[in-house]
Amino acid sequence: MLPALAAALLAAQPPSPEQIFREAVEAQQRGDDRLAIQKYQTLLKLAPNVLEVHANLGAAYARLGQFENAIRHYRAALALDPNNQALQFNLALAHYKQQNFREASKLLEALSAASPADLRLALLLADCYNRTGQEAKTVALLGRLEPSHPEDLALKWLLGAALVRTGKKQEGLVRLDGPARQGHSAEACLLAGQTAMEIHEYELGRDYAEMALKLNPRLPGVWTLAGMTRHYLADNDGAVAERHEDLAGATKVFTRWGRELIACAQGAETYYYLQNIRGDVVILVKADGEVIAVRDYDASGRMICKAPRDRDPFGFTGGLDAGNGLWKLGARFYDSGKNAFIQQDRYLGDPSDPLSLNRYVYCGYSFIQHIKTTFE
User: Fold this and answer.
1) Domain residue spans in the chain?
2) pTM above the 0.90 mark?
């Protein structure tokens, strides 16, 4: 009877603080953070100033996404051990996950100053800088570490974005290429594509836009970038190229200078345009002088002479042949059979010139005396 009575008396005694702490740690280790929090809170009632309890509570709350509580307990732990860098980092991380990037950066700056070669600290701090409009600090911080970590894609992404936003677009684009192509980051592709467009690297911009679309077609801004780059490319001399793909997937690049058509390239073959004073395409010729097509039009734009093998889409005033006698001239379609546009002009007309009040008319029906140079 006596051993059984002793065991019963021991079971009736409340658990010791040491036992509660062990049970809390075991619960936390197996992922039961809610039970661990209950036991740590019980311990705090017995001993409110235990460093390990506050630190572990902070970690448990952080794993549950309760960052306000995590911050409160990390601060309580730091009040007991102000120089504990692990606690400082955990507090900074809780601020970061709460999107309080300025508070996080203050803590990370001190940690990074103490460990200037720590890439993890530098990357987190740089991300805080970029999110708070302090990209110049990112450039200084990561520019110092880049030679030691030339292949780190996270560093390239943060530094590239900072360089772009501080006006060093070409340098930024060089850094963004790695995260875009090797890291398969849709965000990096989007920013790289936007930057390429801004510095007139339109073909490169199109490549990045297509990569971003494949990686994440729902990324905000990606369809806008794709729309900007899908048809138009440009070189540094101001000539603009328009890319077209037919149903078979064959690609042609048509080069313009203003309204003047220059050339068409398809694969290794290139031919050039000769236009009359109205801008009609009348001859297609190769670089060696060989004429490959001759055309003629009547006054209203109907094509009256075209070789059967002539598949070039441009013709009347340099407009795009839309079929069925329609020419795409700027934003509107012109019907050469009716001598009129099929959409209204935005210009409302001049009451003193009655013909101009007809918003469908082409050059006031004076096809010989006038040439229309703007199409809206």
Assistant:
1) 168-230, 240-365
2) no
